[in-house]
Every structure is written in C-alpha cells, then in structure tokens.
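Support reply, case 0932

Customer input (verbatim):
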Amino acid sequence: MGKQQKKRRLYLLCTLILLFISGCRGRSGSGEPISKSGFLLNTFVTITIYDSQDTELLEESLALCREYENKLSRTIESSEISEINHRGPGVSTVTVSRDTAELIQKGLEFAKLSQGAFDITIEPVSSLWDFSSGRDLVPEEDVLQRAVSQVDYRRVSVEGSEVRLASEDARLELGAIAKGYIADRIKDYLQDQGVESAVINLGGNVLCIGEKPDGSAFKIGLQKPFRDRNETIAVLNIRDQSVVTSGIYERCFEKDGMFYHHILNPEDGKPVSNGLISVTIVSPQSVDGDGLSTACFSMGLEAGMALLDTLPDTYGYFITEDYQVHYSKGAKELLQ
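Our regenerated output:
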C-alpha cells in the first residue's frame, strides 16, 4: 500500500465518529468556523474552532499534539516511553516529565478499575501483532505465551516523576489512552486562550468544547460497524463532552478463515472474543473515555455496563454482534 493510499485509508478511519459541522457564526462575524488538519499520532488530526478567527490557535494546537506525541509514542526512539521500554539491564527507575508520569498513573488506575482487563504493560504482546502494514502476522503460540508472562500492571508504580518497574521485562504501551490525554491538554490550551466553542478530533477521538455558538449541541454520529462510513447507528447531542469508540473493525484482518482485531486480551494475548463489536464512551474527560472504551470492551457487556453505572457523568453504548445497541444508565438521554 502506497503512502498516499495509506493516508486516504486513515482519513476514512477518522470518520469512525462522524461530525456534523455547519452553519455556525463565530465571534468575529465571519459566519464560518476555522479548521486545520495534520497527520499526527499516525492518523489525521483536525481542530475546528467556532468562536474565533485566530488561526494561530490552530497552529499551536497541532504543535502541542506533536509535542505530546514525541513524549508518549512507543515507536519514536527519543520518546520517554521508548526510554522506559529500552532501559538498560538493572535499571528499575526512570525519571520522566510530569505529563508522562500522570498518564502512566492514569493507565494504572484503569488497569486496577478493570481488574487487569485493561493493562498498559501489554506492549510485549501488542508488538508481536501487526494490524497496519498489511502483512497480517499472527504470532506463534509459544512466542505469544512468553510475551503474556511479561504482562502485569502491578509491576509498575509511579511516585512523583519516577516510574518504577519491578520487572526487567515490563514494557509500556499507552496507545489506548494517549489520544484522549492529548485531546484534554489541547482543550486546556484553547480554553486558556478564551475559546468556548470547538471540536478536537484526534482520528475519531472527539472532544467538544462547550456547544455551538447558536446554543445547539454538537451532533456526533456513531458509525454502524463494518458498514459504509456514512451509515450511523445513532446520533448523540454532545455539549462539552468527549466521545470515544473502540471497535473490532478499526484495525483488523482475516487469515486462514480466522478474524483478528487489535483489542487484545492481556490474559492470553489474543483478540478479545465476547460478542461485542464496539463500545462508545461519552465522558467529561477524553482520557477517561479512551481508557474506559478499551476496558469495558475487554470486560464484556455485563461487567462493562456495571462498571459504567458506578461512574458519574459517564455513559456507554455497547454494540453486540447482532447489531443491537445496549445503553448504560442515562445514555439514552443523549440520543438525538
């Protein structure tokens, strides 16, 4: 697959959650929002501002996204996560920035909350799978099981800016929560600059600031899994909330009659198989939606729903293999 073709494909993936953006008048009176996109985080990132015509805010938002990517990506050799994963023999403590420490701590909280169904030490397993190059690699069983033995979030702790690793095999993968965390930080920046109406779309992780200038909600459509990108299964009214989806159709392949997807079970290292095809989380903080969408998917319908019902201002939409939508407590109230 050529570079341009790959980018077009990733652009389509960004419409996993469809945004209806139209007809809004900004503070400047221009009648049109301003928007800018960039290829970051291995996807297309789009920032749209409704109540300002200051394009420097867009540039700074994308620059902030790039700055965090350089800290948090496990594939960038100079990142802090790479420093942790490639620490030398006998090194059990690595000092990182406040942001990286905060995100690792957040990941550990989700791991504990889900009783290990979500685990940021999944990297030894996830690095064996390839869902992006088209090579469709399935790890050998013995190799996979050795990697599974290295996965255990309880071997990692954070104290201040120090990340402590109780095992030399422990390696981190923050991809399941990094986009949400970055979206939250971009929101903080824009609000500090006086922005009250905007949409941050990090490859389908959508975070809305406020509402549209005319007082109406942002309309976020949930794509019907495995169908045309324009076919939605529900439309949500969103105000100052995040919408994040995890699904088996995002990164997947078929080989020898078997279907494989990227949401991996920390217990056996294989794609989760529990009758779910997607989970969407609406929450105030995007990092929470990011972590919970993966955790709840891995936990399954009943356990995932039960968890969400204990969390304030957090709502879930679970789609099962029969294309039925199951709603957590209060979730239906957001439907258009």
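We compared this against your earlier run and they match. Two observations from our side: Residues 55-72 form the longest helix (18 residues). Residues 1-30 have pLDDT under 50 and may be disordered. Please reopen the case if you see a mismatch on your end.
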